[in-house]
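Chapter review: from sequence to fold.
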Amino acid sequence: MVEKLRELLPQVTGYIYPNEIEVHWGILIVVYPYITGIVAGAFILASLVKVFNVKEVQPLYRLALLTALAFLLVAPLSLVSHLGHPFRSYEIFLTPQTSSAMAMFGFVYAWYLMVVLLVEIWFDYRKDMIVWAREETGIMKHIHRILALFSTDTSEAALRFDNRALKVITIIGIPSAFLLHGYVGFIFGSIKANPWWSSVLMPIVFLFSAIVSGIALVILLYMVIYPLLGGKIDMKCVDKAMSFLFYAVIVDFSLEFVDFIHRIYQSEEEIKILGELVMNKLFFSLVIVQVLMGMLFPLGILSAIKIFRQFRESDELRKLLYFVSLILIQGGIFATRWNVVIGGQMFSKSFRGLTTYKMEFGGIEGLLYALGLLALPVVILAVLLKILPAWKELQRKGQAEAA
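The token string follows.
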């Protein structure tokens, strides 16, 4: 502890209270809203197919659901790891505290996982799992039989019920996805003592940035995974999904700009220290990464594709530009989470000093563990895609139509 303070103190500027020298919410709390945002955004993308009947993005539907599930399974790990007592986490269900927004996360999480996501995936895959179980041999046959809950009914009436159930669950899932990530913004926005966090727009900003990150990641995964499995990227699907992403980024950028203007307009004595925070401590992560590289540059690329014909006529050029935009957007959204979580702890409540955040490499609060948490959903997604192929039936239909 003494050694850590000795490292931090030379980087502290101005006057700061002793308990504010060390940043208590580190990289794990940055990872948490980033992951939950992807869950919400991926589910919103999936809902475009079932609720809004956007047929062009059908190839992304199952991938979006499985991506949401993979990231949702990992979402609580960062919080539980940060708290330090993972084996006590079940107690929030046994002794619910309705006055604690953080404690209520357990119920929001359980609702979204058990009632929305798993049920929707089951109804969507039920018929296919029955068919696969009939055709397969070995362990996969038994896995699909168990996952189908030993259901064997593939009659027209049963399939109609599945479709109706899917639509109802998706409709329920949209506000649930909004609740899952909006509540994260709600927690930050309701902390009145911190002017960097306290904003009525915070839940809405979190929500739209979640939609942006989820849609962007699903498109990125589709463009990487589908060709690796031998498929050809459906550019009509990618173009349509990128159009939705383009408008989502515009709305997200507009909301963040309005939030910024609102903060300046209502600012009082804290405006000076917040200005120093942005220009000294967060200039690279906020101005360069979040705004320029994560928003304005991708918006410029996507606008150019929509305006200039030569970009629209070349599929390969569009793929490259889309890929670059998606990577930049992911970096920008992660920087957004970083700036909110870490930035809000870097100035003193006296409004007269700034501290710094020194991230460790190893350990439970270190960079290595955080990277492991970010990579874990990808590993889980690979397993899910092995058990529940996302494009098997689409490829079968394509082969049948080609024949």
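Two observations follow directly from the output. The chain has a mean pLDDT of 87. The first strand starts at residue 13 and ends at 14.
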